[in-house]
Design goal:
By secondary structure, this protein is an alpha+beta fold. It has a single domain, classed as Thiol Ester Dehydrase, Chain A. It has six helices and 13 strands. Strands 2, 3, 4, 5, 6, 8, 9, 10, 11, 12 and 13 form an eleven-stranded antiparallel beta sheet that branches. A hairpin with a 5-residue loop joins strand 5 and strand 6. It is globular.
C-alpha cells in the first residue's frame, strides 16, 4: 500500500538559495497587479501624473517566479500539504515605475510545530544599483509532516510592536469587501500566480477544501489596500512594513471584513494594527500590522 501524508522532512536544505530573477516595473506590470485585487488607486494607474507607484504586494509576483531551488529535489508527496502561513514584508522605499528589481530567496529555518513542519524563506529585492529595496519573509507550513533530525535556523523573524488596543476593544473602523466568484481567476492571471485550488472547483474539492478559496497573498493585499485607503488617504508609498498571519479560508463569492484595531503616531511614522474576518467571522488574517512612514 502506498504511503499517505506528507511524510518526514529534514532541515538539510536550510541555507540553500532560490533562482534569481529581475523584473522591470513597467506601467503594464504595475497596473496589472493593482487590477488583480481591483484596487483603483490613481497611484497605480494615472501615468499622466508622474511615475507610477507599485502595490507593495507586487513582491509576491516576484516571489512566485523565484521560488524554485534547482539544487533541492522536488517533493511531490509533501507539496499538496504546504500552505502559506504568514507574511512579513519590509520595504526600504516604495517600488516605482522603471525600477529594475532583482529578487532571490533563501531558506532560513526549518523546525517542527504541532501542525507539522514550519519553514521560513527570505526573499531579498535589490535595485539596479544593488541597494536593498525590500525583504519578504514568507512562512510556510507542511501540514502533518514530521521533522527527521534536528531543526536548523540561520535567522528568525524580526519583532513586531505590540498592539496597544485591549483585547476585545471595538475597532476604530471596519470595511466589508465582496470577494467576487471570479476573484481567483483575476488574481491568478493579473498577478501571474497560478495554483488551481484558487480557480478550479474539482481541484479544490480534491484537496479537501470546502470550495475554491482566494489566494492568501490576495487576501493580505486587499487588506493592505483597505488600510492604505482608510488610514493613509491612498498614500501607498508610505507603507514600509506589512505583517499578517493567514488563518481561516476565504471562499470565492463571500464577503470579508477588514477591521482597523489601532492607529498610533510613532517616531517617523504610524503603527497601524488590523485583522480580517471571513464570512463566518473567523480570522482570515490575524495579527495584522502596517508601519507607515510619513
Amino acid at each position: 500500500m502506498a504511503e499517505t501524508g506528507p511524510g518526514a522532512l529534514t532541515a538539510e536544505h536550510v541555507g540553500q538559495q532560490t533562482i534569481a530573477r529581475s523584473f522591470h516595473l513597467t506601467p503594464r506590470l504595475i497596473m496589472a497587479y493593482a487590477a488583480s485585487i481591483k484596487d483603483s488607486n490613481p497611484r497605480f494607474f494615472d501615468d499622466l501624473s508622474g511615475p507610477l507607484t507599485a502595490h507593495p504586494f507586487l513582491a509576491f509576483t516576484f516571489q512566485w517566479a523565484t521560488r524554485f531551488s534547482p539544487q533541492i529535489p522536488p517533493n511531490p508527496r509533501a507539496a499538496p500539504y504546504g500552505v502559506h502561513a504568514a507574511t512579513d514584508l519590509r520595504l526600504a522605499r516604495p517600488m516605482v515605475e522603471n525600477d529594475l528589481i532583482t529578487m532571490q530567496g533563501q531558506l532560513m529555518s526549518t523546525r517542527a510545530i504541532r501542525p507539522g513542519v514550519i519553514n521560513l524563506s527570505r526573499y531579498t529585492m535589490t535595485d539596479a544599483a544593488g541597494a536593498t529595496v525590500g525583504v519578504l519573509d514568507q512562512t510556510g507550513i507542511t501540514r502533518g509532516a514530521t521533522l527527521e533530525g534536528e531543526p536548523k535556523a540561520l535567522a528568525d523573524l524580526p519583532d513586531v510592536p505590540m498592539n496597544p488596543a485591549p483585547a476585545g476593544a471595538e475597532p476604530l473602523w471596519q470595511s466589508q469587501i465582496g470577494i467576487t466568484p471570479d476573484a481567483g481567476q483575476i488574481y491568478t492571471e493579473c498577478a501571474d500566480i497560478y495554483n488551481p485550488i484558487h480557480t478550479e472547483r474539482r481541484v479544490a474539492k480534491a484537496a479537501g477544501l470546502p470550495d475554491v478559496i482566494l489566494h492568501g497573498s490576495a487576501t493580505q493585499a486587499i487588506a493592505c489596500s483597505a488600510i492604505v485607503d482608510g488610514c493613509l488617504g491612498g498614500a501607498v508609498e508610505q507603507v514600509r512594513r506589512f505583517v499578517g498571519a493567514l488563518r481561516a479560508m476565504v471562499v470565492l463569492g463571500s464577503t470579508i471584513t477588514v477591521r482597523c484595531l489601532a492607529d498610533n503616531e510613532v517616531s517617523g511614522g504610524r503603527d497601524i494594527y488590523f485583522d480580517v474576518l471571513n464570512a463566518d467571522g473567523e480570522p482570515a488574517v490575524a495579527g495584522g500590522y502596517i508601519r507607515a512612514a510619513v
